[in-house]
Amino acid sequence: MTAQQDLRSSPDTADVVPRETGAPPGPGMPAQWWRSAVIYQIYPRSFHDSTGDGVGDLPGITARLGALQELGVDAIWLSPFMTSPQKDAGYDVADYCDVDPIFGTLADFDALLERAHGFGIRVIVDLVPNHSSDQHLWFQQALAAAPGSPERARYIFREGRGEQGEQPPNNWQSIFGGPAWTRITETDGTPGQWYLHLFDSSQPDFDWSQEEVKEEFRRILRFWLDRGVDGFRVDVAHGLVKDQDFPDYTPDVDAASMGGEETPAPYFEQTAVHEIYRDWRLVLEEYPGDRALCGEAWVSSVAKAALWVRPDEMHQTFNFQYLETPWEAEQLRGVIDDSLYAFNAVGAPSTWVLSNHDVVRHATRLSLTGENPQGTGIGPAHPGLPDRETGLARARAATALMLALPGSAYIYQGEELGLDEVHDLPDAARQDPTWFRTAGERFGRDGCRVPLPWAGEAENFGFSSGGTPWLPQPERWEDLSRDVQRADPDSTLSLYRRMLALRAEHDLGLGEVRWLPGAEDAVLMFSNQDLTVLANTGTKPVALPAGHQVLLATAPLAGSQVPADCTVWLQRHAG
Ligand code: NOJ
Q1: Best probe residue, ligand 1, of 91, 92, 202, 233 (max atoms within 8 Å of C-beta)
Q2: Ligand 1 pocket check for 77: Cβ under 6 Å
Q3: Which of 127, 152, 212, 517 has the most CB atoms around it within 10 Å of its CB?
Q4: 219 CA to middle of ligand 1, Å?
Q5: Which are the catalytic amino acids?
Q6: For residue 429, how many C-alpha atoms fall within 13 Å in the half-sphere facing its CB?
Q7: Chain-centre distance of CA 171, in angstroms?
Q8: Residue 176: which of 444, 389, 364, 425 has the closest Cα?
């Protein structure tokens, strides 16, 4: 079968034969798979809806796993699908050991896992240990119990300041806007204590100094490990432990940020948080196979991020410095060097990531001008909105740079289609708590969470039949739909497939970056394994190095010239 024919085969799973149906990856799969894996983030509510209610679900994912095998990913990470009132799209968990009915059942999860493993795809689930939902049994018990009770001790309840306790215990602000404390009414009807929530008021923070909390999370880890998951993405991994003095604190950076300050906030990066991951590592090591932890820690440098992946802690942590680096050669080279150095020093792989469900999609972000703090989002009138063509060209080039780097790379669903940020959602459609808690001042993250287009001519672009997608899809996505792109060898989807195939074939994930001399200022040029990679971040075309054949180019080359916003992968001519 030619590559062209292969691209045109059916998108359904029916034509894809699982490699080892029912068998977990293991035999034949590389040990320490997470060192070089390409991990695809699935945001379940926006992937594929099998029930027609407008919200994606687990059976919808299972039915479409063939598309991910075809893409060539090694693993998937599922954003939360556990029981939740969905105040923060599932990052508010009411029961950590069950599936929310909008996503399906535990049996659906088991079927998904089995099918993914049959395809040789590992499965990482999202764990949210910093806070639960206010609908969690423990929080409901805490509300019903008295101040000072063991039930209250699982969360962070404090007396207020002021004569009547009418002021919050300190001045901390929620990441989503507004105060980080909410006052409760005690069971006798009197105004009572305050509880801490770094995020929405429906997301009370656990008190991780309590042994009962630690034991509960060991139980939760084992629950999913027993089911066969390959690891966990750990939400707000730099949170959990708070400075026990609870000092007042005003961040230097925009309050929307998840952290990343030189001097950490008293609720982030506390030394004792590392004890928790040392403990979890031991839990993972009780299990056979190669299970991994990946931390979501927004910190101010890769050197700090590397603290999460010391040999007895997590296996990976997200490299948000890389995500936050503009499309500019010198800065990119700097962050690549810093990352390789910092992670190497602790024996961990670097990870690379450009998009996720919390940031403006990189097909838009990399060509935005002006400020765009993480989590703030962009709206219809954002100054400096790029034209889509430039955005897409940069996204393709930036991804080709990222996927040529050694380590593990994260892909966010839809970026393989070149999807842009939906900055023009109607206000009435927005659902992110950030939007509500800031009275519309910050748009939040809905624009990167719009359901995927599977089929250009189908109802809801094939995302859902019958239902109204939970966020409206823009008409402009018709041409970006997966079926349209499968039929086009020059599409972004075809480019991703080729990049992932070449990355695996040349073992780039386990290679090494060697910078090559002679590159112009706006150009990055390095070798990894037997490939030469050239990324042109400038505004003018540059010449291809002599003696090479082009394996891949993210934009059409004009003879031997690499245009602006283009990355090429080259191989030296034999002889
Ligand atoms: C980080 C998650 O990625 C984000 O989506 C969520 O809102 C916060 N943590 C709170 O759980």
Answers
A1: 91
A2: no
A3: 127
A4: 22
A5: 235, 286
A6: 19
A7: 30
A8: 444
Output the pTM of the full model. Answer: 0.94
Answer yes or no: is the C-beta of 236 below 6 A from any ligand 1 atom.
Answer: yes
- Residue 408's contacts (CB-CB under 8 Å, 6 or more residues apart) are 34, 35, 36, 37, 38, 39, 316, 349, 350, 351, 352, 509
CA of residue 129 to ligand 1 center, whole Å: 11
- Residue of 335, 370, 371, 341 lying closest to 353 (CA atoms): 335
Q: Could you tell me the pLDDT band of residue 253, with boundaries at 50, 70 and 90?
A: low
Among residues 364, 400, 367, 386, which one has the least CA distance to residue 494?
Answer: 400
Q: Ligand 1 pocket, 256 CB below 6 A?
A: no
**Residue 235 in contact with ligand 1 by CB distance below 6 A:** yes
Q: What's the confidence (pLDDT) of residue 230?
A: 98
pLDDT digits (tens, 9 = 90+) for 492-535: 999 999 999 999 999 999 999 999 998 999 999 999 999 999 99
Q: Which residues share a beta bridge with 182?
A: 195
Pocket lining: 205 vs ligand 1, CB cutoff 6 Å: no
Strands, E, within 383-506: which ranges? Answer: 408-412
- 182-237 residue pLDDT tens: 999 999 999 999 999 999 999 999 999 999 999 999 999 999 999 999 999 999 99
End-to-end C-alpha distance for the chain, whole angstroms? 30
Residue that is written with structure tokens 């139980």 in the block? 219
In the block, tokens 């966010």 appear at 412
More confident residue, 572 or 227: 227
Cα separation, 193 vs 84, in Å, equals 25
Helix 273-285 to helix 211-227 angle (10° resolution) is 30
Four-residue CA torsion sign, 43, 44, 45, 48: positive
Each residue's pLDDT tens digit, 376-397? 899 988 877 878 999 999 999 9
Q: Are 318 and 260 in contact (CB under 8 A)?
A: no
Q: Where are the alpha helices (DSSP H) in 163-307?
A: 211-227, 273-285, 302-305
> For a pocket test of ligand 1, which of 86, 232, 235 has the largest count of ligand atoms closer than 8 A to its C-beta?
235
Q: CA–CA separation, 426 vs 360, rounded Å?
A: 17
pLDDT at residue 14, as a whole number: 32
Look-up of token digits 């997590």? 314
Is 128's C-beta closer than 6 angstroms to any atom of ligand 1?
Answer: yes
Among 314, 331, 501, 323, residue whose Cα is nearest residue 410: 323
